[in-house]
Amino acid sequence: MSTHTIFGQNIVHYDLTITDTIVNYSGKEKRAIAVNGQIPMPTLTFTEGDIAEIVVHNKLKESTSLHWHGLFLPNKEDGVPYLTQMPIEPNETFTYRFPIIQSGTHWYHSHSGLQEQIGMYGSLVLLKKKDDPTFRKGIDDLPEVPIILSEWTDIKPENVHRMLHNANDWSAIKKGTVQSYSEAIKAGHFKTKLGNEMKRMLAMDVSDVYYDKFLINGKNESQLSQFKGGEKVRLRISNGGASSYFWLNYAGGKMTVVANDGNDVEPLQVDRLIIGVSETYDVVVTIPKEDVAYEFLATPEDRTNSASIYLGNGKIQLKSRMPKLKYFEGMKMMNDMMNMDGSMDDMGMDMSLQKMDMNTVMYPEISGNNKMKMDNNMDHSNHSMTKEQDIVTLNYGMLKAPHPTTLPKDAPVRELRFELTGNMNRYVWSMDNKVLSETDKILIKKGENVRITLYNGSMMRHPMHLHGHDFRVLNGQGEFAPLKNVLDIMPMETDTIEFLANTEGDWFFHCHILYHMMAGMNRVFSYEKQVPNPYLPNKKWAYNKLQRESNQFHFMAENDFATNGNDGMAMVQNTRWSIGTEWRLGYHDRHGYETETHIGRYIGKNQWFMPFIGFDWRYRKQNGELEKNLFGQTNTKDQRAVLSLGAEYTLPMLVKFQGEVFQDGNIRFQLMREDIPLSPRLRWAFMVNTDKEYMTGFKYIATRNIGITTHYDSDMGLGFGVSLNY
After folding, report:
1. Which of 394, 428, 446 corresponds to the end of one domain?
2. Is it the case that residue 367 has pLDDT exceeding 80?
3. Fewer CB near the last or first residue (10 Å), C or N of the chain?
4. pLDDT of residue 597
5. Packing angle between helix 327-337 and helix 190-198, nearest 10 degrees?
6. What is the pLDDT of residue 689?
7. CA 288 remoteness from chain centre
8. Which phi-psi region, left, alpha or beta, contains residue 33 (left: φ > 0; alpha: ψ -120 to 50)?
9. How many Å separate Cα 598 from the centre of its chain?
10. Are residues 431 and 364 in the same domain?
């Protein structure tokens, strides 16, 4: 960092060199991305009125970018490849230069691919001037600590993304959240599990990804021993996680929330809060006693682990751990909320602003009945607990701006409504059932008030982020509605936000769960009559490139090497299209060889219906014998190569019903399911069709890519083998 003054302007300069590095968070060396040799990236600090000058040197073997999350800046400096700039290519240098016209806690991160998941994030602190009329003594002059929360997975993020799209449940196995039939029976929730699958839902999910470690400032545990008893400390907290929400708790007592998303709020005391992906909160905590280090605890929403930072010097006092989630109770509640057609009940504005947590059943301590606090004399190994008063949990309705935030009353109002839509089975995330590649930019005019109603009709929560603007959250606080740039919207919630269109350019609006954004849950607000962007010589081509990035094809393959033959499949899919091939290869002519290929397009919001064209090739030595199907149609498998038209429909219980008409006039109907979870690692599969073919089998999932199998096939008999998948 360096500072110099030109014509009275204070220019704060940072050089950031982006390189590959190796980390070892869980006993395995894995690739990560470092900036100036650091993970997370260094904290950048400016004062309101400065000019930021940030020079990025890309030493990676791939392109990159940096987005300044929550900042008001010229659109060309916003850091979204193909929308506001071209990517920074390998061995290129790019300079971001913009005025600092606000204050608060923010953060910055890569907006290129999945780089954010592997280290490209850092804290960004914008300080107030001391003569600022909004400067708050006792808050803005406290000692402070920038904190950035994140997570780490040993699996390459590209593989994580691909596995999510292919409904691979390895993450659930690792987290212990498969919710299999044996677990349902043990928990007394067999009917709940049946009801869940009758409504064609997968298991209750809280977090998509299994993470090996959770981190605070790049470490799972650390201590800040410079703070003494009686001191107050301001924690500037940013959630830089790719997909994790974090519960925040403090062993030293209550936390005072003083800001959210870089904007001051009226101070309020809470026992805990949940910070959504990409949100920031400023909280003030007190070090109650000398010679004690109090734990500030960050627990991911799925409660698989935690990360801690200890404030103070001395014996460590831990915060009580949050109890495990009650997944089957949550599943039962979700069953009640979902209709048989896959739609969810709209609870209206009564269920908004996180006031009614959909997972209340899963979080029994929210009511306060199970409130526990660690004993003051507890050491690191002692978890003695005593009951206390009810927990105060922050929700958006409690946030209040310290000054009026009303928009100009004489400005025209543009009303927009979006439904957040998704398909967990195929991991498709969209708005109004369209991904970015299927939509045009949303035109808005400078000077108008844009009011957006958001309804979450999906099964997952979505932290929606608007670039380049703050919006008012209409939370019942009237003219003191808080200002935010991220709004976490839970299933069935309806929330309303509004902002003044007061700049120009193309601004991204998207879910900040990285894998949801990359799956297509994005829109672009585009100001009319823009000036040309010098960083984008061909805006139309660039926008098409951005659209394609959110609708990529994902590949999967599986092959079963068994004693009675070789079974396998390979598939590529994107939001709408599926191209899949299956094969069954015997070890001699009597068992035969066959392959089927289907090219289909999913129809409808729930994507239960897929019409397709197909090709069927078979050979089996039968000495000219003819077989008859259930309709009396004859068929030979000696040599068969036919085209087909058909459709596949997902029935209740997630059974796939397939109907096909072949060019020779034959008709075939088929029922199949391949992934019935009998236990956390044991899966059952079956298939039966009108050609009088049938199959049943079991697979034990040994590792992420290996399974032990046995199956019986009507053509090939009984076999045992090993299944490999990618």
Report:
1. 394
2. no
3. N
4. 98
5. 40
6. 97
7. 37
8. beta
9. 30
10. no
Residue pair 223/293 in contact by the 8 Å Cβ criterion: yes
Give dist(CA 105, CA 144) in Å, integer: 11
382 with 430, same domain? no
pLDDT of amino acid 476: 93
Same domain, 537 and 637: no
Domain end marker among 92, 114, 129: 129
Res. 216: pLDDT tops 70: yes
Q: Provide the domain limits for residue 647.
A: 554-725
Q: Model-level pTM? A: 0.93
CATH number at residue 607: 2.40.160
Q: Phi and psi at residue 378, in whole multiples of 5°?
A: -75, 135
Give the pLDDT confidence of 30-72 residue by residue, as tens digits.
999 999 999 999 999 999 999 999 999 999 999 999 999 999 9
**CA dihedral sign of residues 493, 339, 303, 24:** negative
* DSSP class of 28: S
Q: Residue 638 — left, alpha, or beta (φ > 0 → left; ψ -120 to 50 → alpha)?
A: alpha
Question: Among 59-73, 351-365, 367-381, 392-406, which stretch is predicted with the lowest mean pLDDT?
Answer: 367-381
User: HSE (CB half, 13 Å, CA atoms) of 353?
Assistant: 21
Round to whole Å and give the CA distance between 311 and 192.
44
Q: Tens digits of per-residue pLDDT, 225-265?
A: 999 999 999 999 999 999 999 999 999 999 999 999 999 99
Query: Within 501-605, where are the H helices?
Result: 514-519, 539-549
Provide the CATH number for the domain around residue 273.
Answer: 2.60.40.420
* Residue 720 to residue 390: CA distance in whole angstroms: 56
CB 308 within 8 A of CB 298: yes
